[in-house]
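Reviewers of the previous submission asked for a worked example of the structure-prediction workflow described in the proposal, so we include one complete record here. The input consisted solely of the amino acid sequence. No template or homolog information was supplied to the procedure at any stage.
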Amino acid sequence: MTSPVPLWKNFLLFLLPMLASNILQSLFGTINNVYLGQMIGVDALAAVTVFFPVMFAFIALVMGLSTGASVLIGQAFGAGDTGKVKAAAGTTLGIALLFAVGIALIGSLFARELLLALATPPNILDEATAYARVTMISMPLTYAVILVTAMMRGVGDTVTPLLALVIYTLIGLVATPAMIVGWFGLPPLGVASAAWASVASSVLTLVWLYFHLQSRRHALAFDQTLLRAMWPDGRLLRLVLRLGIPASLSMMVMSAAELVLLGLVNGYGSDATAAYGAVGQVMTYVQFPALSIAISVSIFGAQAIGRGQAGQIGAIVTTGLQMNLWLTGGLAVAGYLLARPLMGLFITETAVLDLAQRLLHIVLWSTVLFGWATVFSGAVRSGGTVWTPLAISSIAILAVEVPSAIYLSHHVGIEGIWMAYPIAFCTMFLLQMSYYLLVWRKQPAARLI
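From that input alone, the workflow returned the following structure tokens.
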């Protein structure tokens, strides 16, 4: 009789392809930033950076919806109900595309006004507007790629999203420089090249996904059942929104705080904005294990609840905390050791490079605390409790991070803005852990679908 596979092995087998997928998803943006910084200059990097918090807010909306859908899909899949899997996926996809069309309309009309409201430096306003307009108009494509690949994880598939994002990234490796310099008879498109390359990658990746899922008879293949479900079922739509909107709001709160912090950074000039962008790129990669582990905890917990085995969640949380220590902590150590060459990928001016390195050193260690906080919130969300994690995150960000950044920037300088991150992450970790240990785990967890 064979012994059961240890939880940490199943967790790792699920986590690693998802982690690779998330890294590739961001790698496309990083490659674009390297191309822009090296082939055009620091102002091009700053032009893209200034739109990042707005882009994050839009992505937060669809990621929140995918979080809600993944909980429902995970519980239905754990219970062996494939019909409800497709119903939840179709309902989520339909409502997300409606949101994306609205964003596209706003972007086509008000991109410049939005960037003016962000106090974008005048020397990069035109290029930033061109980039922002294309990015927002193409949001339906972006949403479709993100949502379809994210929902697959609810049925335990992290390999197909990885393959899709390999295709997405490889296309971007060719398309971005081709559009910058005008290869293959294309006109040079400047900073907007990065946005147009994303459009090309999205279209071709979606085409591949359609045929691949059909050929594999995947649980989320675009068949008639799934397409019919895109006309939302009222009860499921309410469930998806009830679970997804708080997750979206949590990320939007983070984005709103970043807008405030970016406004503070912009006051120090475009060099500071470029340093902010470079540090943000590295921080994104260091945080990927934390975010991927949190998603894994949520999906493993949802599937356990679907099977009627909610008692396994404690072991799932412990595994997530350990994984976060080794993976996120390991990347943070590597970030300290390689800080200067990493910053040099994006920045060529010595003064800006020195500033970016100092800022990275201030904040990098606190990503482990951030990861532990997300493990606890992911476990809580697996059972459908979503408003309390949102409230805790909002307190840590709006009542701690933003006031700390404003105060410290006035008394310490630009470095004070980055000191606010560890303060907020420590607060978030302590509050999320306390709620999980003292309240949530003492309550029964029941299926929602």
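The mean pLDDT is 85. We consider this example representative of the routine output the project will generate in years two and three.
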